[in-house]
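Re: export button greyed out
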Amino acid sequence: MTRTLISEEIIAPGTGKAIELLKGQVLRIEQVEGGQCVDFNAFNLHDYKEFMHCGRTRTVHGFNPSAGTFLWSAPPRENAMMYFLADTVGRNDVLFPRCSAFLYESAYGFHDHTNCHDIQAEAQREYGLTPDDVHDSFNFFMFTEVEVGGTVKIDRQSSKPGDHVELLALMDVLAVPNVCGADVMRTSNFSLKPIRVSVFQASAEDLAQVPALPRLASQRTPAQFRNPTIKATRELTRDPAYRPEFTNAPIREETLEVALSGEEAAMLDRLARRELYGDDDGAALRDVLFSWWETRFLTAANGAPSMETDAAG
Amino acid sequence: MPEIAPRTVTLRLNQQQLELLDRTLPRAGVTDRAELVRLALREAAEQEAAR
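Workaround output, generated via the alternate export path:
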């Protein structure tokens, strides 16, 4: 089965477009002239409070995700919203949030300037969302690096006409790509260019590429929230009926006595991180224990669902 | 090098940490928590020596 084209349009520089993308549809974001960064947000089409979360996504897939990864929603949902199906360049960013009017005023002196936050806000206003509903963006084609010492930098990008990324919707989403407004920095090689966006009905081959994911109890829905009601006022006022119900609180500690042979005591002395724990053998051994557990049993990095093991089970 | 004397170490573990240990016992093939801690220590020492 081949893909069926559903729609296609050009997004002009300085603009963005909110697109309803249903589960099983593919969004292609394509370079027309090349060298253009595309900022991207996504919302659950049926519950805008669930949105694509760069923090979660970069925790699971690193700072520069490419094809073969997922776009995740924020806790406590933590659903794979979209599958990153194809990427002809292989360089994207989830480190930088999105450029804003403040940046161009504070650093460049502009009173008005195209910026990703305002473009995103204007595009999603078509669906009743406010500027406060813009979230950190997944920045396609943006070339960023973390330098020694922890600083981050943006460099020029190398995308050419026809280069594209493709995202497969795993739920109904409102996908909002926008043409990044940064023309006075390297993000899009110092110019703003149009972008082509196309929506396809996914082929069987597309769908077959998606790795199986486990469904975990911790992937919560509003029906499980203690407060499922979306707040409708701006003022924050205390709920006098509030009674805290923190998970597993109070935390209770117990002692565990572990008899070590002379040989095992010597092992502990070699492994103990005395710079952290001093002469506290119990803390040093606890560190050894849980560090060992990570090495032996943790199959997925940084809290990602362990797709390989859990999904198979 | 002088021999190290046997000693007993007291770990303080909370209910969540203990739950993880208890779930790990069958996966590690041991039957009690102290045995699991000693296994972790021995395997960690082997890994350290192999580096």
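Helices of chain A lie at 54-61, 101-108, 116-124, 204-208, 262-271, 274-277, 281-297, 307-310. The button fix ships in the next patch.
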